[in-house]
Each structure stands twice: as structure tokens, then as C-alpha cells.
Amino acid sequence: MNSHHDLQDGNHLAVLGYEQSFERSMSLWANFALGFTYLSPLVGVYSLFAISMATGGPPSIFWIFIVAGGQFLVSLVFGEVVSQYPIHGGIYPWTRRLWGKRYAWMAAWIYIWAMIVTITAVAQFGSGFVASTFGLELTRETTLLFSVALLLVALVLNFTGTKMLARVARIGLAAELIGVIAVGLYLLIFAREQPFSVFFDSMGVEGDGSYSAAFMGAALAGLFLFYGFEACGDVAEEVSNPARRIPKAMMMTILVGGVSALLSFGGYVLAAPDLQSIVNGEDVDPIPAILESALGPAGAKIFLVIALTAFLSCVLSLQAAASRLMYSFARDGMIPGHRWLSKVSPTTKVPTNALIVACSIPLLICIMIYFGSEQLLTQVTSFAILGIYVSFQAVVLAALRQRIKGWKPAGPFSLGAAGFIVNVLALAYGLFAMYLLAKPGTSGDFFADWVVLLGLAVVAGSGALYLFIARPDAKSDAPSGDAIEVAEKLRAAQRAAAATG
After folding, report:
1. What is the pLDDT of residue 1?
2. HEC states along 148-173?
3. What pLDDT score does 132 carry?
């Protein structure tokens, strides 16, 4: 951390070329809660526990360490960027100011669609908790009904303003910590059915092949868990002292999320009465049975209510982050319907039109899933993860490019001389993660094996067509590629503030 004099939030924003339009009512803890409920280890572990176990067995838990370490490096890079550019939208303004308009347009276009698909996936996975909580059968019809209900309730809550968003995020954080850490510890201490050595036992998941291939196949166990921390930066203009607080909130999200995921995943493995059936793929939804065995019917029901709260908070945080990204995109005139999308409610100070879009498109995708195949949800979820990693690494690559050109981040959060090494390592990790996500399957079904890359190609291709035909970059005069220049201006402003303060 640098010890120089911090600029006032409004003055920092003015150096970046923007005026204050939002209410800065979000504290460090509320900002951390937003990122944590978006990352949501409870949602991630519950959604992929059975798949991870069937693919890689108990040792798949080590992916949590690997991915948490890699994404922590990414969060450090993001921290330096957001500390210099604490403005709404995260990925889009960061890539624009670090590289340029066209580069930012493609990164943000891919990220918007990845976020929209993620909202859909979380609402769909959450519908199972709604059904279980009320003792209803989970059919295609109830999945659609409860998914739509989660999306609409989150939209209504988001409409009420930043204070409600922060309040629900804090409630979601409490639900996550109880549902993940408390339950995980209880399972580890009081309900253990397996020895700790089981984490080094593949339990035959590799068959006649090499275990390394099975372990690599289980990478989703970690890759699905550790994104969401960038949402802390999506709402930067609603956070007080964002240049210092948002980097802290991002790092806290990864660290607390990592501990939570380890306790949760490890607890389920050790408390499973029939672990072999899960590893064999015979039990595709094992967590309810594990919880009922360990906590009893009443305890399992309480957990379902807590988990449902976490899912709702996760959808809420996702909608909020997506709407701020769209608002930021629209404010610079870079997206179709930008005048409508860039409107902010004069009463609640939230981008209501962007929120409507962040709810409506996932709602339409839910309807498509209802009328489509049952595998569509898994396929769109896989695309979302790859799209998010591509957008993340667009920031990491752009930051490294600026460092090579001489950029020294000027925000109050700085890694100093270590920044270059951290940036290189974060990029290397990101390329490795994208390879694992994009690697085609081996089922023999062309569409199923290549669907993730096909999805990325469709989104990137349509974005490139619009970019080169409509030329939104030519219609926008907002600043871009100015990282070195802005760093100099910020340092000059900081010196002036220190001299007068």
C-alpha cells in the first residue's frame, strides 16, 4: 500500500473524466458481501459437488487450492487497476482505459453475455432449493416457475436502491457463512464417516487410464467457484473510498471464499455415508441425503432455507453487477440502446433500465431451457465460465501491456516492484484455466464436445460483426488507452491535495 494522500472520491472521479451520479452508501463490508454472495461457495459447491466427485474423486478438492491461488493473483492485478480507475462497470472501463475502445468492446460484450448466462444458471440451480424448501417435486414446470420467481424478486429488490442491495448482500453473506462454514465444521467434527486419508484416494475413478487425466477433468470443481470478486469493482461509484476499499474487498472475497469452499466440500466428502456411490456417479444429488443423515430432517430443512437465502442474494448481486456493466457500456455510447440503458433513476439512484435487461434476458433463456434439452443448462453454464475467464484475462493482458510500456499504477493500492511478476503469473494461470475450460470433450457427440467453444465463437463472432459494421467505438469520445497519462495526473492531484491538506 502507498502512504500518499488520498484524493476525495469526487475529485478522483473528476480526474478520470466523470461526474458523481450515484449515492456512495456502500461500506467495505457491504462491498465484500456483494462480491462474496456473487462468488457464493455454497452455490458453487452444491452445484458441482456430484460432478466433481464422479470425475476426479475425493482428490478433486485440491482444485480449490489451485484455483484460489491463481485467482488471488488475478485479484491483485484487478486491485491495482480499480485503485486507479474506481469507476462503474469493472471489466469494460478497465480494458478501455488500459488498451482501447475496440478491445474493451469485445471484452465487455463477451462478459455481459457470460454474466447473463450465469444469472440464468444460478436461478435454475436455485429453483431446486425452492422446491425442496416447500416439499414440492422438482419438475420442468416448477423449475421454470421458481427460476422466474427468483429473477423477479431479485429485480424488485434491486429497484429499491443501493442500500437495499447492500442490506440483502449482508444477509446473504451471513447465510453463506452459516450454510458453508458452520455446517462444514459441524460435518467435519461431529458427522465424519470417512478418514481424512480419503482425500488421497481416487476410489477407482480413473478406471484403466491415468489418474492425472481424471484429475484434470475435475478442474471445474475449482474453476466454477472463484469468480465474482470483480463485482466489488462493478459498483465502484456507490462505494465510499473505493480506491482503497475495493482491492481489500476483492482479496477478502477470495480468501474467505476459499476457506468456506474447503470446509464445505471437505465436510460433504467426510460425512457421506456411501461415498463410493457418489464417486461411481450413482447418486447425482447426494448433498440432501448427507445433510439429512448428519443434521436430521429439521436441520436439513433449516439448511435449505439458509441456502435459498444465499441463492436469492447471489442472483441479486449478479443482476446488480451486470446492470452496472451495461450502464457503464451505455454511458460511453458503446451499446445498442445506449441512451435508454444509461438512464439512472432520480429517486433510487440505480440504472433501472439496465436492471430490466439483466432480468429479462435470463428469463427468456429459462424459457428456452424449458423447451430445450435437459443438457442445455450444463452447456450454457460451461460457456459462462469460459466467457468470464476470457474477459478476466483481457484485463490481465491489458495491464501487462501497459506495464511493459512503463505504466506504474497510481492508486492508493499498489504492489510496487512485485506488480510485474504478479501480472505475469496471473496471465500464465489464466491461460492454463482457459485451456482446461475450452478443451473439447471426448464423448464422440460433436455438439456436446465442442459446445463451449461454439458458444464462445457465436458470442465473439456476433460481437465482432456488430463492432465492425456499426462502429460503436467511432461514436464514443470517452477516454481510452490513457493509463500512463492518468497515473501522472493522479500523482499530480495527490501532491496538490497533500500540499493543501
Report:
1. 42
2. HHHHHHHHHHHHCCHHHHHHHHHHHH
3. 81
**Residue 125's pLDDT is what?**
83
* CB contact at 8 A, 34 and 173: no
- Which of 280, 225, 246, 208 minimizes the C-alpha distance to 80? 246
DSSP per residue over 11-62, as a string? HHHHHTT----S---B-HHHHHHHHHHHH-HHHHHHHHHHHHHHHH-GGGGH
Closest CA to 277 of 267, 266, 289: 289
382 touches 223 (CB < 8 A): no
Q: Can you say whether residue 454 is alpha, beta or left, with left for phi > 0 and alpha for psi between -120 and 50 degrees?
A: alpha
Single-letter code of the amino acid located at 466: Y
Question: What's the pLDDT score for residue 96?
Answer: 94
- CA 301 remoteness from chain centre: 27
Q: For residues 113 and 302, what is the distance between their CA atoms, to the nearest angstrom? A: 34
402, 476, 460: which is closest to 98 by C-alpha? 402
Give me the pLDDT at residue 331, please.
86
The pLDDT of residue 398: 98
Angle, CA 111 vertex, CA 109 and CA 113 arms, to 5°: 75
- The whole-angstrom separation of Cα 33 and Cα 44 is 16
Residue 26's DSSP bridge partners are: 239
The per-residue pLDDT for 374 is 64
- How many Cβ atoms sit within 10 Å of the Cβ of residue 154? 30
Report helix angle 162-176 to 287-331, nearest 10.
Answer: 150
End-to-end CA distance of the chain: give it in Å, rounded.
20
DSSP string of 94-133?
Answer: HHHHHT-HHHHHHHHHHHHHHHHHHHHHHHHHHHHHHHHH
Per the structure block, which three cell numbers stand in for 146? 421458481
Calpha distance 244→1 (Å, rounded): 9
Q: Which three cell numbers stand for residue 295?
A: 443434521
Fold of 23-485: Amino acid/polyamine transporter I (1.20.1740)
CA dist., res. 363 & res. 128, Å (int): 17
Q: Measuring CA to CA, how many Å separate 163 from each of 25, 273, 469?
A: 7, 44, 41
* Helices (H) then strands (E): counts for the chain: 21, 0
pLDDT along the chain (501 residues), means of 10: 65 88 86 86 85 94 96 97 92 94 93 91 86 84 94 94 86 87 92 95 91 90 85 89 95 94 95 94 87 90 87 89 88 86 90 95 92 73 87 97 96 95 98 91 78 89 92 85 95 86 63
Sign of CA dihedral 203, 209, 215, 220: negative
Residue with cell 424448501: 133
CA dihedral 92, 94, 95, 99 (to 10 degrees): 140
Q: Which residues contact 353 (CB under 8 A, 6 or more apart)?
A: 340, 341, 343
Q: Positive or negative, the Cα torsion across 50, 51, 54, 56? A: negative
